[in-house]
Each structure stands twice: as structure tokens, then as C-alpha cells.
Prior knowledge:
By secondary structure, this protein is of the alpha+beta class. The protein has 6 helices and 16 strands. It folds into 2 domains: 2-74 and 227-246, Immunoglobulin-like; 83-225, C8orf32 fold.
Amino acid sequence: MRTDVAASLTISSTRPATAFLQVAVASPVTELLTVLCDGQPLPTEEFGVGEARVHRVELREGTTTVSYSASVDRTGPPRAVTPAAEAEALRPSRYCPSDQLEGYASTEFDRDRPRAELVATVAGWVHDRLSYVSGASRPVDTAVDTLLLGRGVCRDYAHLTTTLLRALEVPARLVAVFAPGLDPMDFHAVVEADVDGTWCVVDATRLAPVGSLVRICSGRDAADTAFLTTLGGVARFESMTVTATVDGDLPAPTTAPFPLP
């Protein structure tokens, strides 16, 4: 099934600065990235960081517009969990301090359940425990803050799910995706967990069918998967639009872990 995705970002800067973009999908069939500053093209440098495709842009003073579009064929083999990825996905990280919730997770969940069932149960628990409220959380909030607050947005749901799974010794990581069916449309964050040696996705928000998701990148938490990072403190993110559509009907919703190509 073909999926078409697009994103447009506007950034203003009072003097030259460096920006890192993570908006490109992992496996495009076709794609186009255009970066313009006040109508003049800016060069981009692409390189890999882990499983992410990062584009570096040297911003000039003025207004920069980033436009990205791609077509994707979502068929493909499941991704195997490598020993290196497993080790990284078990460790505490900036927004997922799983070592702080080990005792809590052990009292809430039976870690001896079959892996797929345990992953689905944790994601369902987070869905029931939190309320989705735009603007409710701060960019610096960790999964512990989210648990205490009881509300957040997709990255908060993903951080709490990831943290609880790691606390139960289940390798888990955050995945940035395009999400056909999401309303309102935006970049989306979900969780990928090790289910019997295969990376499988769950979405505690349940805002889009997991079978429609298009992978951008994965990482320990949102610090690794941010769509825009700027250096120097002189660039300001102004606006963004995101679209994602499928050729045909959206897949049926499911709460079971789903392998994302």
C-alpha cells in the first residue's frame, strides 16, 4: 500500500545558525527535500545517526522554509532486534528514567506474561492512566513527571510506555512517524518494543492505526528523534504543517504489537 507524506517547516534566524532536521522517512520510494532562505536555496548535508537520516543545514539570517515530500511502500520484512539495539533499549535515558520506576512497574505488571501480551498490557495501562491534553506538558518533562501529572501528548505517552517496559526488562524505544489517520495531523511518537526478537510498535494514544504508520527514525527517547534541533539560540521555530495519506482505506485499528518495516 502506497503512502504519501509531506512536511513544511518555517524557521526564522537573526544571524547564521546550524539546524539538524529529522523529517526524512527511513525507506522512501521517492522523495524531495527543498530548503530556501528568503527564496534562495540552501545546501543540505545528509548523514546517519543510529537509524536516523539527519540533514544538516547552515541557516542564514532571515526566514528559512523546509519542504519535504515522499512516497513510501510500507511492505517489507520485520526489523530484527540486534544485540546492540537491545542493550541500548534497556538502559535508562534522558526522558525515560526506567531505573526510577522498577519497583513501581513490578507491582503493577506481571513480567512473566508472554512478551506480546505484556507489551500490549503496558500500552493499554498508559492509555487508561493518562489524559491526552495538548500543551499540558513541558519539553523537559520525563516519564516520571508524566506519571505524576496524569496527562500529556504523544511523546509523553511514548516516554511513559517506554520507561515502564524498560523497568520490566523489555527493550523499548521511541519511534518518530508520519501517521495517516491522525487528527489533527502532526508528527507522531509511538513505542517499539522487542517481541520475541522482532521490533513491534504499540501506540498508547490510540490516535492512529499502527498499520498505517511510516517510520522516520527511532531512538532512546525524544532527544534522539526531534524533527528539528537548532544550535546557537538565535533560530526560532515559527510554524509547521504535516500531511500523510494512504492509497485506499486505512488499516483497521489494533492494540496488539505490530511489526513496522
